């Protein structure tokens, strides 16, 4: 029984292909579509990683014909590899949003440059995993740990100071206008009172004077 190699070293999963894949392109060890196929002299083919692992770990025979086989006597399966290389396959990062189907032969190069590859935000204390194509925007505009350059900080604090001063001045103006208005209101309301009081006092004084003069007259008599 063949020992199953690490999953990442085995072939391409069937579900990643755009169209149905010919049954001769499957590896009998990992059951996926063959990656970098190698074959025995009877043309039984397998993924290179799968068959080399089998020959190292299990027994030095072809798993299908049981003929003697070693890593050195394996042949590249050129025809099969050429046919597989033209098949359309989903990007490794399809689950992260990459919509592309790529020829198998171009897959490695695409994956190296794919904008949906995961990268870490380099801002201190963030460590968020983001798509490669969003890295700059995240680090400079969206990240809550993004650095603010010192000249930006000064600008911001000056702007804040200016707007604070403007606000204070506006409030002071408002306040002094209100005080002026109140002052005139009070003054206007006091004015009639004063004249009333004056009239009253005048009448009192007049009364007293009259009375006094009456009393004086009576005393003289
Ligand atoms: Zn395989
Ligand atoms: Zn064989
Ligand atoms: Zn991609
Ligand atoms: Zn970040």
Would you kindly provide a written description of the structure presented here, covering whatever features stand out?
By secondary structure, the protein is mainly alpha-helical. It has three domains: 7-85, Zinc/RING finger domain, C3HC4 (zinc finger) (Herpes Virus-1, 2-Layer Sandwich), CATH 3.30.40; 117-147, no CATH class; 149-204. Helices cover 48% and strands 9% of the residues. The protein has helices at 48-57, 78-85, 104-113, 135-142, 150-220, and strands at residues 37-39, 45-47, 75-76, 88-90, 101-103, 118-120, 129-131. The radius of gyration is 49 Å and the shape is rod-shaped. The model is unreliable at 1-8 (pLDDT under 50). The structure holds zinc ion (4 copies). One zinc ion binds next to loops.
Protein traits:
221 residues; mainly alpha; 3 domains; Herpes Virus-1; three-stranded antiparallel β-sheet; rod-shaped; binds zinc ion
What shape does the CA trace take? rod-shaped
**Order of SSEs, N→C?**
EEHEHEEHEEHH
Specify the structural class: mainly alpha
Task: Please state how the strands of the largest beta sheet are arranged side by side.
Answer: 2-1-3
Task: List the total number of helices.
Answer: 5
How much beta, percentage-wise?
Answer: 5-15%
**Oligomer category:** single chain
The top-level CATH class of the largest domain is: Alpha Beta
**From the alpha-carbon coordinates, what is the Rg to the nearest angstrom?**
49 Å
Low-confidence stretches: 1-8
The total number of structural domains is: 3
Number of strands: 7
In CATH terms, the superfamily of the largest domain is: Zinc/RING finger domain, C3HC4 (zinc finger)
Mean pLDDT: 88
């Amino acid at each position: 029984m063949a020992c199953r190699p690490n999953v990442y070293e085995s072939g391409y999963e069937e579900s990643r292909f755009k169209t149905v894949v010919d049954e001769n392109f499957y590896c009998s060890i990992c059951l996926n579509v063959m990656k970098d196929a190698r074959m025995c002299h009877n043309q039984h083919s397998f993924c290179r990683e799968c068959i080399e692992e089998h020959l190292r770990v299990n027994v030095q025979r072809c798993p299908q014909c049981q003929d003697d086989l070693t890593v050195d006597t394996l042949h590249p399966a050129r025809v099969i590899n050429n046919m597989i290389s033209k098949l359309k396959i989903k990007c490794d990062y399809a689950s992260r949003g990459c919509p592309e189907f790529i020829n198998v032969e171009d897959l490695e190069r695409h994956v190296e440059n794919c904008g949906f590859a995961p990268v870490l935000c380099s801002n201190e204390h963030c460590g968020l995993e983001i798509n490669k194509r969003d890295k700059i925007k995240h680090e400079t505009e969206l990240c809550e740990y993004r650095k603010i350059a010192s000249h930006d900080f000064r600008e911001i604090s000056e702007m804040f100071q200016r707007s604070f001063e403007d606000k204070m001045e506006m409030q002071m103006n408002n306040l002094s206008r209100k005080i002026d208005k109140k002052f005139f209101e009070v003054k206007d309301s006091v004015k009639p009172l004063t004249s009333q009081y004056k009239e009253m006092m005048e009448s009192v004084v007049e009364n007293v004077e009259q009375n006094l003069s009456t009393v004086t007259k009576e005393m003289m008599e």
